[in-house]
């Protein structure tokens, strides 16, 4: 509890005579996230406050991702180092966190589309020019904005050992993280496979049987996947192939998973509303 208290900053404070902390949005284990306001550029921002012991990890992650510019990745604006804390100023995204997405009972199409968009972010980061993996793709890394665009956060940070160890009960192996000797965020074949499996775990949670008001999903004690009844078998199969490392058709790269999900998304996409289809057929008046 003492560590969490140190992450909390008094709202109303102005950081570096520029960024006004307006309200606490989320309290995590390694950082607190605030909605803030950039008084110079007159825009809303997100501000992360990280404790001193986590400064090296966040600094390294920001160095690796500072040049990222992708519609599915949350942008970084500024970095402020003070004696007792690190402040990361990011793009503010107004949308639904993963817990809210769980409660909203997304359709299979929207679950698959979410996976497609996450894969797009991973593919962008992992190109030969960037060579960055995510490494910590947990529910806390995902938000979907009001337009339905998925935004991924927290690239290149050390992985959440508790989360991934817990979910290793489903189709995992004795190893939780591939290539632990490499710096966080540095891409490798094994780490791309870890990220791909992490996408599968997120999609499974969105389609797993659960209470309607649940904001989180616990891994089944017996390690068996249990999908909701309305989950299409072909979607369940792709997710299982992504999670179960021993599967003979195991999906181990974001590119392969993206291709499989794109096919499913095209098959599941609901038809356009009748009124829209009628309007599209109207001839253009000259």
Q: What would you say this structure looks like, in words?
A:
Keywords: ATP-binding, Kinase, Nucleotide-binding, Transferase. It is an enzyme of class 2 (transferase). By secondary structure, this protein is α+β, with helices and mostly antiparallel strands. The chain has two domains: 16-91, Phosphorylase Kinase, domain 1 (2-Layer Sandwich), CATH 3.30.200.20; 95-268, Transferase(Phosphotransferase) domain 1 (Transferase(Phosphotransferase), domain 1). 35% of the residues lie in helices and 18% in strands. The protein has nine helices and nine strands. The chain has helices at 2-7, 55-65, 98-103, 108-125, 161-167, 189-207, 233-243, 254-268, 274-281, and strands at residues 14-15, 19-27, 31-38, 43-51, 76-82, 85-91, 95-97, 142-145, 150-152. The strands form two sheets. The chain has a six-stranded antiparallel β-sheet. A three-stranded antiparallel β-sheet has the order 7-8-9. Strand 5 (76-82) and strand 6 form a beta hairpin. Helix 4 runs antiparallel to helix 8 (254-268). The longest helix has 19 residues, at 189-207. The protein is globular, with a radius of gyration of 20 Å. The chain starts with a helix and ends in a 5-residue tail after the last helix.
